[in-house]
């Protein structure tokens, strides 16, 4: 297989606004990317194109060896696992956690078929175990905490054995312990050679799980830098992305950043 994502000058416009500005980006099968950028930078829009929800206004978006605009998106979308706030809102609050996950095998939200086979049920159960939420299987989605919901959504995104996993701010709304637990879980996933190519959107370098390989920095719809984490996460690139001088550190595979103080 060629690249999982191959974007050439992908531009998305809405009226006068340019949401993505000539983004060229390639994601290979064994890569795990983090996409960083301030509010409004275009991160969610980028994932909407990558998940075949939004077509570029100009440029070419190659996804899983298909070209968006020349392919039936209803065949492409089931090959992609996605978690996002917009998707989470569509999950019925009264849905049983097990069903939230198992229903993804048919790409639907809300259980609609009664004849999922044993393999589907076993897979849903093992994913809930892998994500550390097997004890919640009989609860309804609406009764879960934010962190628990995030884990169930990731299990759901993995249910159909996707070739591409897209996670839009999975750590948003989590407390410190919840974030650290999720970073560990994503790190285990990232280091598993059987995991799909993964793109994780975040605002914080602290949320980059060990095992992630690449970073794309976005500002005002344009790519500031893209490539291997160590090459991209420089103080100059972060300053250009977030519009302020930042100090960045890496320790034990984890990153941290803060505003640069005057006395250095
Ligand atoms: N239909 C639209 N018309 C005009 N502007 C839009 C439209 N949809 C999104 N935008 C703008 O496009 C920009 C990029 O939005 P996007 O949601 O991709 O940003 P983001 O990087 O995900 O931000 P956040 O970190 O806040 O989630 C924002 O400024 C947003 O207001
Ligand atoms: Mg967003």
From TrEMBL:
Residues 5-245 form the ABC transporter domain. It comes from the Bacteria. SMART domains: AAA (SM00382). This is Iron complex transport system ATP-binding protein. InterPro entries: AAA+_ATPase, ABC_transporter-like_ATP-bd, P-loop_NTPase. It holds the Pfam family ABC_tran. Keywords: ATP-binding, Nucleotide-binding. One of its GO terms (molecular function) is ATP binding.
């Amino acid at each position: 297989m060629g690249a999982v994502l191959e974007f050439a000058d992908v531009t998305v416009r809405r009226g006068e606004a340019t949401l993505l500005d000539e983004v060229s980006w390639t994601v290979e099968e064994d890569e795990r990317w983090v996409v960083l950028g301030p509010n409004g930078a275009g991160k969610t829009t980028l994932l909407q194109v990558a998940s075949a929800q939004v077509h570029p206004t100009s440029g070419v978006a190659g996804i899983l060896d298909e070209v968006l605009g020349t392919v039936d998106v209803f065949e492409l979308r089931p090959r992609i696992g996605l978690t996002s706030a917009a998707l989470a809102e569509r999950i019925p609050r009264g849905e049983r956690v097990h069903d939230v996950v198992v229903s993804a095998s048919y790409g639907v939200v809300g259980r609609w078929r009664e004849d999922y086979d044993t393999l589907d049920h076993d897979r849903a159960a093992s994913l809930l175990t892998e994500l550390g939420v097997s004890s919640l299987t009989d609860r309804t989605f609406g009764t879960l905490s934010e962190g628990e919901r995030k884990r169930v959504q990731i299990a759901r995104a993995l249910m159909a054995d996707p070739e591409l996993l897209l996670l839009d701010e999975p750590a948003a709304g989590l407390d410190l312990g919840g974030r650290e637990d999720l970073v560990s879980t994503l790190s285990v996933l990232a280091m598993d050679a059987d995991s799909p190519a993964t793109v994780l959107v975040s605002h914080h370098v602290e949320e980059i799980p060990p095992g992630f390989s690449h970073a794309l920095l976005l500002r005002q719809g344009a790519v500031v830098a893209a490539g291997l984490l160590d090459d991209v996460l420089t103080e100059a690139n972060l300053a250009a992305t977030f519009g302020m001088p930042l100090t960045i550190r890496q320790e034990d595979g984890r990153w941290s950043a803060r505003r640069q103080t005057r006395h250095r």
